[in-house]
Structure formats: C-alpha cells, structure tokens
Design goal:
The chain is α+β, with helices and mostly antiparallel strands and 220 residues long. Strands 1-8-3-6 form a 4-stranded antiparallel beta sheet. The N and C termini lie far apart (50 Å).
C-alpha cells in the first residue's frame, strides 16, 4: 500500500517510509470492489477522502431514461472527488462505479486534517490537486457550453492539440460521444463531415487536424 501511495498526487514528495510513519493501517479503511460494482452513489454524504489504490473507476450520471454518461475517468492511484470533501455541501455529485476490480483507501476527513497539519507538503499537494481539477473542469464546461456537436468536437480537438502536435488520440469513440452527451453514430457523422471538408483526417484511433484555422472558424 505504501509503495502505491508514493505515486499518489496527495503524497508527492514523500517516500514509502515517511508515508508509513504518517499513516497507521488501523486508522484507515481499505475496501475491494468488483468490476461494475458501485463504489459510491450520487448525493451520498462524503466524509472521508477516497483514494483509488488499484484498478480504475468512473464518475457517471444516470438519467431517468436509463442512459449513463461517464463524466470523469479515474485511474489508480488518484483521488476521488477531493473538491467535495470540504465546504458546506459534502455530497458526491456523481455515482462512482468500478471499471475494473478496484481497491479503495478511505481517509476520514478529520484524520486528513491531522495529516495536513503534520506534513505541510500534504496540504500543499491537496491545494494543487484542487486547483488542477478546477482548471480541467473549467475546460470541460467551456467545451460543453457549445450548442452543436460540431462545435463541441472542434473545441475538444483544439484543446487537446497544438500547432506542433496536430494528432489527437481517440481510443474510444463511444466514450467521447458520451462525454458530448451524443450518440456514437451522430459523432461519427460529424467526423465524416469534417473529413469531407479536409479539416481533419481520421486514421484508426487518431484524428489528425489538417486545417486548424477552419476548425477555429467553427467556434466563431
């Protein structure tokens, strides 16, 4: 466990021995989940910081129609919803579901406070994590603020590329479609339309931007 935590952003700068001195296994809980099992439900009171020790998980929202949309992918050893641990509304904004067999370490909020007081580096790391998450979510909100699927895709491709790096990996087209709250077929149709205009070129699991200026014009 301690070797895994050295790779966790919360304990960046500490070695396994230092983490072992800080965290007594009797003061934390470790729970295992099977693939597809719900780790925590939306609107659940969040009183302990969950750290994914093994496996992967996803933050999802399920609509009354039964359709589920993945909002956030979480890989070990990342924190789960750290921004919702403190403040006036300590409830999870999404369901957290195990994408593979997973293992979760939970640090009670009060215990985490003690760790922050004992090691300023943990407090500093936590603030950095919250700030980085805020930046990521601001970009997601910006991308999703566009009305058309074409605008959403253009924003996504521009955000994940540069003048020098023109290729954007798209390992799972269905997942990207869910991110845009669209169907796979609708997204593929938009991609084909942009290809016909020679703005992008789809090859395997990658999309190459061939006309960046035209892509920007879509957002005007």
């Amino acid at each position: 466990m301690y070797d895994i935590l050295t790779r966790c952003p919360l304990f960046r700068g500490l070695d396994a021995g230092q983490i072992r001195e800080l965290i007594n296994s009797d003061d934390v809980s470790v729970t295992s989940y099977k693939k597809g099992e719900t780790i925590a439900h939306r609107d659940t009171a969040y009183s302990g910081l969950m750290i994914l020790l093994k496996g992967s998980a996803a933050g999802t929202i399920t609509y009354p129609s039964g359709q589920s949309i993945h909002i956030d992918a979480i890989e070990a050893p990342e924190l789960i919803a750290p921004a919702f641990l403190f403040g006036g509304y300590n409830r999870l904004p999404v369901d957290v579901v195990a994408e593979t067999d997973a293992e979760i370490l939970t640090l009670h909020r009060g215990y985490l406070f003690e760790l922050m007081q004992e090691q300023v580096v943990i407090l500093s790391n936590f603030i950095d994590i919250i700030s980085n998450r805020a930046d990521v979510w601001s970009k997601k909100i910006y991308a999703l603020s566009f009305k058309s699927l074409k605008e959403k895709l253009a924003s996504y491709l521009l955000d994940h590329s540069s003048e020098e790096q023109t290729t954007v990996p798209i390992p799972d087209i269905k997942e990207i479609a869910e991110y845009f709250a669209a169907t796979r077929s609708a997204l593929l149709s938009v991609i084909e339309g942009l290809e016909k205009k020679h703005i992008i070129r789809a090859e395997g699991n990658n999309i190459e931007i061939t006309n960046r200026a035209a892509l920007k014009d879509i957002l005007k």
